[in-house]
Structures are given as structure tokens and as C-alpha cells.
Amino acid sequence: MNARTPLSILKSHLFAGWAATGLLLATSNAQAADLNALIWCDHSDPALLEPFEKANDVKVNVKEFEGTGAGLAIVDQSQPGDWDVMVIDSIDVPRGVEKGLFEPLPEDKLPFADLFPEVKMDKSTIVDGKRYGITEKFGYNTIGFNKTKVDPADMQSLASLTSDKYKGKVAIYDYYLPVIGMAALAIGKKTADLTEADLPALKAELLKMKANAKLVGEVTASQTALATGEVDILVGGG
Prior knowledge:
Elements: E1 15-17, H1 21-26, E2 34-39, H2 46-56, E3 59-64, H3 68-76, E4 85-87, H4 93-98, H5 122-125, E5 126-127, E6 130-131, E7 142-145, E8 170-173, H6 176-186, H7 199-212, E9 215-217, H8 219-228, E10 233-237
Parallel strand pairs: 1-4, 2-3, 2-4, 8-9, 8-10
Antiparallel strand pairs: 5-6, 7-10
Helix pairs in contact: 6-7
């Protein structure tokens, strides 16, 4: 039998990481059990889950959510022990720790050799000397565009997102992390240097972007709009 972590040690808590599902059962030694995971939509593909289930003799039950707030709301409305694993933005791991949701991860059982040092995100995933999350997935939220309809040179400036030239041809992924970051860059601010004093200017820029957009929607709707030609530019797409 494959060695796995017993779900009983999770108590009423969750493991947290960008996608820590694989680590929970790969570091343990208990009998087969269901694993209940709160995940992002791109983690529900059977091609991803089935090999893991077979390798670890476990059934993975998933519920999709979008955005940390929605995921934490599901946990708040659930009974203790309903969920074993949660996919979460690494920068939001401390929020879960503060709410008392996450158990520390066993440092000696984690595959750090498989991670680039730059994406370990220790400042977010380690709280008070204990690790509560591990990066599974990383990448960029960017501006995607249809190069047959959009001049690539225009995409060198974020001012194009609010220009009349592309009014009604823009979709915005409705997630604050990437979109506020892009708004910050548009007004000449580095995201790492943002303060509360920048909020009025950020709000004004975001409202300009919204006024120019045809769609502000969740990840599937916004990406589908670009893929089907409903819009020509996607702001914040992964």
C-alpha cells in the first residue's frame, strides 16, 4: 500500500498551497479514504486526478471555486472536517492561517528539489516559522489579444486598454490581484510599492478600464470571450 498522511491528523483544518493535493497523500501512511478538495477549475480534469487516485488508492472529490474570498466562504459555511485540501493563492495563505484553517506542512516530506527557488514564496507560505503551503503552479497573468485584430505595438502601452480604439473590444478577468496590478502599472506605480494613498488613483483607473470593456467576468467567461471573438483583448488572463 502506498504511504500517505492520515486524514485524521487534519482535524478541522485544511492543507493549503497553490495546489497541495499531491503532497497530502504522498507523505502519509493510512488506509484508503476519500480526499475532499476545494480547487480551482483547472484542477478538476480527470486526466490530472485519475492518475493520482490510482497511484494513492484514494478517491478525490472536488468542488470548484474562483477567488480566495469565495473559497474561504465555502469553508466558513462547511462543517469541520468537510475539506482536506485547498488550492489558494500563495499570498493568501496567511489569511487562512489567521483564521485557524490550515495545519502546518511537514517540511521533510515536501519536494522542494522540484521547485525553482524563485517560486517557493516563503514570505507567504511560512508563518511564524511554520510552512502552511507549497507552490504547485505558477505563471503570469497577462494581457492576451487577437493579433489579427489588434496591433501588437498598441499592446506595449497599458493606455491602449482605455483608448477609444478598443472600446467594447476588451474583456477583464474579474480578479483583483492581476487587474489592480495592471492598473498600478498604467498609472506608473510599481505593485510592490503601493500604499493606501494610491487607492483613489487605482480606483479611477479601474473604472476607466471597466467603462471601456465589453465584459468583466470570471476566468472561463473572460477567456471564452477572447477565444470566440466576442472581444479582441483579455486583461488579466493566465
